[in-house]
Amino acid sequence: MSEKCRSILAILRSDTVAFRLRIEREELEQFLNKLDKVIHDQKMVQARTERGGDAKDLKSAQQNVTKATADLATAMTKQTVYGALLSSACNPQQQAEKDIDGGSNQGAATNQAKAVNYLETAKKKLDDLLSLIREEEMERLRAKVQPRPPEEYLKVVQQGEAIERGHRQAIETLQRHRQRVPPDRLLRPQPSSHP
Q1: Cα separation of 66 and 87, whole Å?
Q2: FRET partner for 20 with CA separation of 20 to 30 A, picked from 1, 114, 167, 180?
């Protein structure tokens, strides 16, 4: 493969990697935004449970948070390995629903705190992953805009000069050939020397 084809292929590959990184980063940012809302909602339900709110309202609110967590865990499992962490939060959430139903607000609050802990652990891991992706994106960007070493510029200039010399030699050869060959022979086909 020629050097030019290799360089074009490298550019296409790097753009594909950059595109993949951007897509992953955007998906993670969306997951984190949704996870922040789930964590907020779980903390709000936990605070209401600790204050001793209406059992029916608390159970309904907890069911909504549990469903939101399960939905997000399912979506994240398709994209990342961290969906399992969110699934782990569903167990204490479901237990909190049962505790609320059974009139044990203290037990429910304890299970809700466990769920928040799982959710925050997942958020921390996703934040770490997002930081790594952003760092890789920045490294790729720096590599693209980083100036080339002088040796590379010298090599490019030398290649350009060699090409220019080759073009001049080809033109000179063509001009000498035209001077030696009569103009009427230039247009006539040459007899083949092969039988």
Answers
A1: 10
A2: 1
Q: Which two tokens stand for residue 151?
A: 């040796």
Task: Note if the pTM is more than 0.85.
Answer: no
Cα dihedral sign, 89-94-100-105: negative
Can you say whether the dihedral through the CA atoms of 140, 141, 147, 148 is positive or negative?
positive
Q: Which two tokens stand for residue 4?
A: 């030019």
Q: For 13-71, what is each residue's pLDDT tens digit?
A: 556 777 788 888 888 899 999 999 999 999 999 999 999 889 999 999 999 999 999 99
Contact 87, 39 (CB under 8 A): no
CA gyration radius, the chain? 34
